Amino acid sequence: MQRMKSNRTVLSCCDIPGDGIRMMHMGRWIRTLLILVSVSFSATAWSLGMNDLSVLIPLPGQSDFDRMIHPGFEGGKGQLLPWDTFRFLPVLAVEADPETLYRNHLRVVGIRFDPCFQEGRKAPCRPQIRLVWQPLIFVGDQSSTLDASVHTFYELAPGDWEILISELTGISDGDRRIPLQIHPRILREGHYGPTWSRFRTIIGRFAGESNLIRATAMTVRQGRVWAFMGVDRVPGGWRPIRIPALPGETPVRQSFLLFPEGMMNLAEFKGSISPVATGFEDWQSLVSDSIEFKAKAGLPRLKSLMGRAIEIENPRRHNPGTVDCVSCHMAQTVRLWGQSHFPSWDWERDFESQRYPGRGLAWSNTSVNPSRTDRVRAFGYFGSEPVIAQRVIHETLESLGGYKKTPPVKTERF
Prior knowledge:
By secondary structure, the protein is of the alpha+beta class. It has one domain (48-402). The chain contains 13 helices and 14 strands. It is globular. The model is unreliable at 1-46 and 405-414 (pLDDT under 50).
């Protein structure tokens, strides 16, 4: 290695001068100090885990049902989901009268704490709480869900995020290596236990009608037709949300269905999307008849389609302002279909530019039967089985990396 000319001695990688022993001891001391600082930083950085920011609430028994959060639940910001807002959404399920379903069955099954909700390219960060609601029904003492849902969005005021994080830290196990799952402490303690009680208090303090800005719905018909739509709060009322990436000037509704024959083989697709997102014609071809598409498409089209699904699962590439509802909700099932049919592909290397980086225990998916083609839920339950989209796992990992920022900021990655 060529040395710099200087009055001082400049060390190359292999140089040890005459007093090198003393410098070696100093180097060890410095390395020890750095390790201690690193451990201290890690303890701080790991003070929240996956299940603290995305909370999947255990389904209740009959005796716990009253402890579930209902639409009229309120703290200082008013009711979480007033009837006057709910009635702007479509009928969730034809099996029940809408008002009866709203008052007697609709309950919160999931909570998302997000330091940086973004919608669209170059969009600013907006710290939010989002609640996932599903209708609960009982068979004996055990509750189950209808395959329909409502999501409500609550925007936090400046300064509230830091207070919220301090509250969450006080009830956290602090280990982000635990994968996202039904919340383990609530499951262990029950709905009357201290952890769920504190979560209820946090929701009552930070969410309510006064900061409710959006409500979206996924409806179900005959167990095989799903439709998506939502409303945004505007001065004087509510306005339908324009679904991104769809053709036309004002697309406010999108649906996915499985044909009756598609319900006979839930390892394959046989259905339809309406309307299809612009540029997603191959997505529709796969959904129409996956067996035929596999036989005729050819390797380049198949890999392109799988790459698109993997890219949708990556929150650094897409957000709710850049992808349509159906494609987002189906991305996991489409990818898992591909992985089951093409196990010899190098899924990490072939899709390295599209996939979310990293791997490990925290990336594990604890969903039950996620590859079934009728699983279009992102976070919640199918019947009594937990469903967690891989995108939700990736979003939670992103949130863990940014939850301390004030105001939360994410690097633009589009």
